[in-house]
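Researcher: Please predict.
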Amino acid sequence: MTGVAIVGCGNISHRYLTNLAALPELRVVACADLDVDRARAVAKEYGVPVAGEVSQVIDHPDVEIVVNLTVPAAHASVAMAAVEAGRHVYNEKPLTLDPATARTLLTAAERAGVRVGCAPDTFLGAGLQTVARAIAAGDIGRPLSAITLLQGPGPEGWHPSPEFFFKPGAGPLFDMGPYYLTALAVLFGPVTRVAANGSKAHARRTVGSGPLAGTVFDVEVLTHVSALLEFAGGQRATTVFSFDSPLARGAFLELTGTEATLAAPDPNNFTGPVRLRRTGAPDWSELPVSGTTAGRGIGVLEMARAIAAGRPHRASGELALHVVEVMTAILQSADEARFVPVTSTFVPPEVWEDHPAE
């Protein structure tokens, strides 16, 4: 059984703790947070034996993998502390705020002989794994293009502390983009260049719920981003990520090939319908979906298994670095109005067959 520490006991930690507790190969042995009282409260709620400051938890002898659920601005520093302590680390997305920092982290991990993994792990779920199998089987012919869309009014209406969503490292691109861009990278391979534009509808926003309701805060990032992506395999993708639309529309990911189009499920979820429409067919047909629906944290399990087996893990630091570079290139292109190259690469992960039962 692999010992896991949770660092960062905010909203998303509850989902991780619930899911990790259901995986018998993992054991959450410690929780940490800048607010130690919050860490203790979360540890008590989920029966975690140790709670304390970040450094104490990272150094705990039973901890093998640190699951880093801090705010994006702290991802790099907490991950580096874990690596320097000789611990494997699995970050929430994004891996870091910029590619240079991500490369420094991966180099340090390689030097220390530890692994770096990163969310999103939704591509390991039944929905996107079914899509990957269909593409590999030639069901759409030669893959040509993709379209993604995620838009809505933003999280300030429902999230009790939404300000960090509008700071560097978040916004619709860095917050939601990793789900879509990771899915595209896993299915099509590395991106080679991007072109983009973006805008910001409001300079300030207001917290809409919870104890901070009515609080006004500054918006520091683009809140609408459109991008064109070119892939090493010759495919193209058109993407939209927006917090500026009163109408919530999203979870849209379609992939087109020479023979058919695949409608993929929400890349922020682990399952969902997968539909195929062949050239000349009068309607869509639904494909049988198979794989895990275990939820957030399944990437930690797959990483632990890979470490034990001495093989590469699928939600890898290299994949996450590539997605960070793609997002950074999108922002640069939006600022400079030109195509921006993407130089990093990765080995696309194989379809996951030894997943937990549904």
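Model: The two ends are 20 Å apart (CA to CA).
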